[in-house]
Every structure is written in structure tokens, then in C-alpha cells.
Amino acid sequence: MGNTKLANPAPLGLMGFGMTTILLNLHNSGFFALDSVILAMGIFYGGIAQIFAGLLEYKKGNTFGLTAFTSYGSFWLTLVAILVMPKMGLADAANGHFLGVYLGLWGVFTLFMFFGTLQGARMLQFVFLSLTVLFALLAVGNIVESESIIHIAGWVGIICGASAIYTAMGEVLNEQYGRTVLPIGEKH
């Protein structure tokens, strides 16, 4: 009988989320314009790769991972659609206040997902807590039309994305070396 151990898909999902989140929030912080770099990452790594990671979590029987990665992968795909569809003549541009409501709903979802991390690694808790704060700031910033709140959200997003990358690499390197290389606060 061969090796039946399944690979951990979480690092793939966390990297897709983390890198895409950093790119978008470099824009939100005011460093770069919203361009094809962010949109392409949102479709292929933030979107499709996270959905694949979620489907692989299903295979492992991980409901949390399935829900998180397929949902956030779908978030990236819908966000890109919200931004691109008007440019293609398929829809009107998003109403900023309604975009705030959209982001607020993602914040509520993320808060509930944060509660699901409380039995897991401390770094994963930080990823979801900082993401909850990010969605709250982006929702408020869009609803009240405050560029300064969106800039602050951008900095939170950069930190959130970096924490996801760190968590992903901790999972990869710790497994690869069979010991803690990057501590992620795992409960044993």
C-alpha cells in the first residue's frame, strides 16, 4: 500500500490570499494605481488558487479550510468582476456605499471565521483578526467616502497579507524540516 498522507493545501491558500492582499493594499495605501498586476493576481492566485486549496481541504475533511479558501477565492473573483465589468460595458460602476456594504458583509463573515481559529495556531488567529479589522476599515472608508480611512486600511492589509505569507511559509518549512523553523504558535 502506498503513501496515503495528503499534502497540506493551506499554505497554497494562505500564499494566494497573502500575496494578493499585499498587492491590493499597496494600492489602498496610495503607493500604486489599481492596475492589471492586482487584477491578474486577484483572478489567478487570490481567486482560482484559493478555490483549489479549498477543494483540497474538502478532500482532507477540513470544513474550516474548505469554507475559508473557497469563500476568499470567490471574494477575489467577485472583487475583480466588480472592478472590470463596468469597463467591459457589462454593468454600471459600483456604488461606493454599496461597495462598503459588500465589504462589511465580508467583515462579518471573517469575524465568524476568526472565532473558528481560536483552537488553532496563533498566527492564523492574527491573520483572521487583522482581516476582520481590514474589512471593517474598508467598509467604513467606502461608506463615509474617506480616503484617509482607506489608506489606514491599506497598512492593515499589508500587515494582514504579510502575516498570511509568514503563516504559509511556517507551515511549509516546519513540515519540510520536521521541526519548528518559523514559529506559528501551533497548539499541540
TrEMBL record:
Cross-referenced PROSITE patterns: GPR1_FUN34_YAAH
InterPro entries according to UniProt: Gpr1/Fun34/SatP-like, GPR1_FUN34_YAAH, SatP
Native source organism of the sequence: Phytobacter massiliensis
PANTHER family per UniProt: INNER MEMBRANE PROTEIN YAAH (PTHR30178), SUCCINATE-ACETATE_PROTON SYMPORTER SATP (PTHR30178:SF3)
One GO cellular component term noted in the UniProt record for this chain: plasma membrane
Signal peptide: none
UniProt keywords, alphabetically: Membrane, Transmembrane, Transmembrane helix
UniProt key word Transmembrane helix: yes
Transmembrane portions of the chain: 12-31, 37-56, 63-85, 97-116, 123-143, 149-169
Superkingdom of source: Bacteria
A single BP term in Gene Ontology: succinate transmembrane transport
Stated name of the protein: Inner membrane protein YaaH
Topological relation to the membrane, as annotated: Multi-pass membrane protein
Pfam families according to UniProt: Gpr1_Fun34_YaaH
Family, similarity comment: Belongs to the acetate uptake transporter (AceTr) (TC 2.A.96) family.
Protein's cellular compartments: Membrane
GO molecular function, one term: acetate:proton symporter activity
